Please model this.
Amino acid sequence: MSKEKQFVKEITSRDEDSAQWYVDIVRKAELADYSPVRGSMVIRPHGYAIWEGMQAGLDRRIKETGHQNAYFPLFIPESLLNKEAEHVEGFAPEVAWVTQGGTEKLSERLAVRPTSEAIICAMYSKWIQSYRDLPVLINQWANVVRWEMVTRPFLRTTEFLWQEGHTAHRTGEEAQAEVLSMLEVYRDFVERDMAIPVIPGRKSEREKFAGAQATYSIEALMQDGKALQAGTTHNLAQHFAKVFDITYLDEDSQLKYVYQTSWGVSTRLVGALIMVHGDNRGLKLPPKIAPTQVVIVPIAPKKAREIVLAKAQELKGTLARVGLRVHLDDREEYSPGYKFNDWEMRGVPLRLEVGPRDLENHQALLVRRDTGEKIPLPLADLTTALPTLLEQIQEDMLKSAGDFLAVNSFAAATLEELAETIAEKRGFVYAWWCGGEECELAVKERTAATIRNLPLDQEGARERLHSKAKCVHCGKEAKEVAIFARAY
Amino acid sequence: MSKEKQFVKEITSRDEDSAQWYVDIVRKAELADYSPVRGSMVIRPHGYAIWEGMQAGLDRRIKETGHQNAYFPLFIPESLLNKEAEHVEGFAPEVAWVTQGGTEKLSERLAVRPTSEAIICAMYSKWIQSYRDLPVLINQWANVVRWEMVTRPFLRTTEFLWQEGHTAHRTGEEAQAEVLSMLEVYRDFVERDMAIPVIPGRKSEREKFAGAQATYSIEALMQDGKALQAGTTHNLAQHFAKVFDITYLDEDSQLKYVYQTSWGVSTRLVGALIMVHGDNRGLKLPPKIAPTQVVIVPIAPKKAREIVLAKAQELKGTLARVGLRVHLDDREEYSPGYKFNDWEMRGVPLRLEVGPRDLENHQALLVRRDTGEKIPLPLADLTTALPTLLEQIQEDMLKSAGDFLAVNSFAAATLEELAETIAEKRGFVYAWWCGGEECELAVKERTAATIRNLPLDQEGARERLHSKAKCVHCGKEAKEVAIFARAY
Model:
């Protein structure tokens, strides 16, 4: 049995056990590892480099839309967290508490931030005085902690990394515009950089953020047919402003409460990357966020080694100079076959093989990670061909995930249909919903599917349904179409 | 009284009260603010943007020297922290403890990381098996918590941001080379990007990191004559490897302990920036890390406003296209004088004034923040002249800080001399030291000065001393020259 086969055999097949397949990729691609701290993971260099690539794309967009980064304290005094009633009710069950500092027993417990609304509102109350101070558009990259009972690397961990935006505005309209504009920033980032198609929509009352007036999300579909919430934005209205006393003197000399928003995405997205693009050979990374876009594997019998390596080195330099992220795997102790598998597992979009015969023919062999396609190319063309090829891969990966999403989107007119589809096919199921929480819960109980969101594109959603506007559960008149799915 | 004067008056003069001057700059330049959490500060957008500029310069160097970023858990189980005896003794008094997670009282307390050696060693023990796995060269950007009684923004806070490198090597020589090479990376970064000259050297036994075999530091001199430790690197030898059982199978089939290092710099450096470069008008930022390098202030009577603003907009675009970080202050509600002060306070290296007469003459007026020099320049020359001018400012700021360091470096042959110099002039005082802790303590008791480090450049240090190689305290034979100073 070849080394190659052995290597691949180590991953559980996705069809056999998709949960184990997921964990196998996380471990074998060295994205993350379990730690001695319950529920906390270590993000290993390869996983962290992917996160850095994601951060770069998102941070650029956040700044381009006028936001600035800042940093707020990790600890939140209990009394602050308790100020907004719904907020504390939502988060208290999962807070880690600091009760001792050095040798001193604290008189007031400190929450390790599960999210930063409370501490940020306390500051905004100080900073905001006049309408001239508005809008305040601040983002923070930080770690947060939520005490989870059941955890899975990236998807649900006690500690995770994220960005959280917190803005304050003069009017409710401005706040609502911000919430939708950031949702669009998330959609653009996740689709264009991560090649993951998503459905933007509004969350149901039941699923909204603790303390928000309305929550919006982008929802992605994993290859196992389960949904994953990929980002959320919250319209906080004046809920926090009123309890934290965030007021400004308006042009008309009236003291008014600000309107606020918050929004975030997290390292959870790395999990989406695995589950949307991965296969039985491992991870597949979209070129835009791949830490290494092209890996050069020299294939040389011993006597040709020196000359092939020299050429490979030269190629690496040439490609790096045109801005590609390129790595040369010149490890002597591993066979080319082992290396192929290793880099496929890590998801590098393009492999460039070069051997003595290739050099004679002034060419190299390119192998696409996404399709497996082998493309011989003249060496002289590489600097122009590879950037184009990488763009093509990026596009094709989005298209492929888009096709999957299309094929796995269904419609249901009755609870029976809905339940059958969820049981047999999973996927996104569009159905009319009356807006009642009892119906939402009844569907969940019957199907284990929840409302992912009420798509912003209601018109498009309606077109999928040939049925009348009647709630999928109670049959009463319905105004909106919801997407139901089982979810991570 | 003009608005300008009023604005400046709000900062305490440095000569009058340098501690208050420091805090005034932190607040007025909106670098940071106090928070409702004892000892924790909020890093405001301007302060955070400076930190991001510093991160970029340092992260690039860390990666160029072969290190990769990763992320380890915030929490460290007490039993792990307790493994290395010196380490726990050094850090236990300042640890914040999590004792409750959600509704559950924890059976084992979790330390909020004061530094990450313990948790990282636990992982390295898993990851490192063979000599082929070495070296491991990992860095982490993270928040850490040390329970401090007395705090000052940036300089000493309960929570701060930093990077911490943690490496494992096959031999002690390699580890020592890493420790010195990272010290050089820090020196290069702090001098070239932050324009702060530093002295690299070894810490005394007393001042070394808890658990290290040897600690190295770069020491900077603040304008008030006090020293600030700007970065440290630690040779951990096999201390942690032995208690965390980090072994590898060497080529000779022997199981051996690895040699380790760790190294870090923190947001403390923002404090150094203020205290090395600031003046009574506020902050002065070196161009390389300034979030805004050039601020354009249009100066226009009402009727010329439109035409001047249009030109200013155009200039902004032109300058941005050649890679400058440029901001146009087009606020209508503030006078030019107010804006001058505002941007001086925030430390922007260059101000570009443009008014109707300037436009007629096809020129603009440049004002340097570091020297106050006013330089009229033809508009057509700006794209070539400004990058050069910014480089010049960067150089001049380093030179100016270097001159200050030179003038405030002294030598002392006797304790009397040392005490007098410290009392009258502060600064760095070079003196022979026998290496005995009693002498170190005796000097501290008498002068409040501590040994900052034993400069790596002992030859240069010796040349400053005309006295014989006798310990400044006990008079016994001394082998090394130490730098004494009062310190932050």
User: Anything to note?
Assistant: Chain B touches chain A through 56 residues (CB under 8 Å). Residues 1-6 of chain B have pLDDT under 50 and may be disordered.
